[in-house]
Amino acid sequence: MILPIAAYGSPVLRVKCKEIGPDYPDLAKLIEDMWETMYASSGVGLAAPQVNKEIRLFIIDSTQIFANQDEEDKGKYPDEPGIKQVFINAHIKKLNGEEWSYNEGCLSIPKIREDVYRNEEVTLTYVDEQFQPHTQTFNGVTARVILHEYDHIEGRLFIDYLKPLKRKLLKGKLDDISKGKVSVDYRMSFPK
Question: Which candidate in 138, 140, 142, 182 could, as Cys together with 77 as Cys, close a disulfide (CB 3.0–4.6 Å)?
């Protein structure tokens, strides 16, 4: 089932999310719905708060970035061909490498894309859908998508990284999104 995506201004997007256990109700269905929602809205990652759940869960599919990249970008990133994965109760253990810029967008903040600097590499602890523990290091575009989604479970958004003047210039567009004055081809829920 395709779930509505919480729009900018929704309080759930600013919550530091809670860990869950294997007994979380209908978790397999929620994950299945999140994949369906993410693909239906042409996303490469989706975090639980974006579908109005205050839990430490996100999914990513960075393989789509590589499948759709321009010829001149092929071989540019070390994580090619990307991964498709579920992350539950993730915590960052270490950030490594230089910060690098990449143009990011967010399903909760449609029609706004900005360059954001993030570390080249991230080491995470997390559990998978079977609640098996993992400690793993990711790099390249995959690390960037993970860091973007990880921010969601910490109550942060990519626009938080922008300089104050840039944020000020975007204020009108952000206000319009939170009021539902935005046209997208996927379902959204707006703050009351």
Answer: 140
Domains of the chain, by residue range, sit at: 5-189
CA distance 10 to 12: 5
Please name the residues in contact with 24: beta carbons below 8 A apart, sequence gap of 6 or more. Answer: 30, 55
Q: What is the pTM of this model?
A: 0.96
Active site residues: 149
Q: Does domain 5-189 have CATH number 3.90.45.10?
A: yes
Compute the distance between CA of residue 190 and CA of residue 114 in angstroms, rounded to an integer.
22
* Backbone Cα Rg of the chain: 16
User: What element of type H or E holds 91?
Assistant: strand 84-106
Please tell me the distance from the alpha carbon of residue 49 to that of residue 14, in angstroms, as a whole number.
9
